[in-house]
Amino acid sequence: MSTWSQALLDLLICVGLLVVMPLGLRLLPASGLAGVRRLWFAAAAPAAVSVWLPRGWLAAVLAAAYLPAAAALLLSAARVVLSRRLPLPRTVAVATALAGPTVAGCALVAERAGVHLFGFDLDVLALTVAHFHYAGFAAALVAGLVCGVDGDGPAGRLAAVSVPAGIAVVFAGFFTGEWVELAGAALLTAGMWLVGWLTWRRARAGAATRGLLVTSAVTLTATMVLALVWALGQAADLPHLPLSWMVATHGLANALGFALCALIAWQRIGAGSEWGVSGVRTE
Question: Which chain regions cross the lipid bilayer (predicted)?
């Protein structure tokens, strides 16, 4: 990637660590997460500083401060699954959101240390950090929220399952090949469009909140086309945007237009009583 796109990616990673994650965690219940929320910045701030340092042992040590917080979220994901308090689709969405930061944290430590984890290029590891904060965490969480508002209807259940499934298949494609990654991108695109449509349909809050929800829905329409075209170009060797411009278009728009707008809107709406995905006020 170019120098400017790397700087933009680093900035997006910092926004994910310091803004998106805290906003999303506030939509989840206090049970088991109160300590993580209280100490979040003690873990995330050193990791955010690390992305601006040269690769090496100091950057890796600062990035590693994030791992205990990510591990605590992973443990919470296991509790969600074992508790069976939520319907299965929402369980899948919430557990995926809570597990995403662990993948991001491991990729961040490896990238900052200059280690080609599983043989991946360092740029790919850096992109993985961003992907698993915005798609792995924010998108999966919003899919669960939308499912709750939809009353666990068929469309909401499909959204809550297809977004995590798309994330998982894209991740598998990193190891198995670009055509699998393309299939994952198509599945994730379908799920995100469904999330956008349900968000648009349910956007009946106040004017400001409705504007944020509509912005997040409209953003998904464009950004996921870019993701799908890029994955197709990689798999079929067709013309597509370089990574630098994907960061500046797909990445930036998803971070600001989708994730931030959606999470701020859900903060304004108010989380439900159980895992922030049931009984959400929409009027």
Answer: 6-28, 59-80, 92-110, 122-146, 158-176, 182-200, 212-233, 245-266
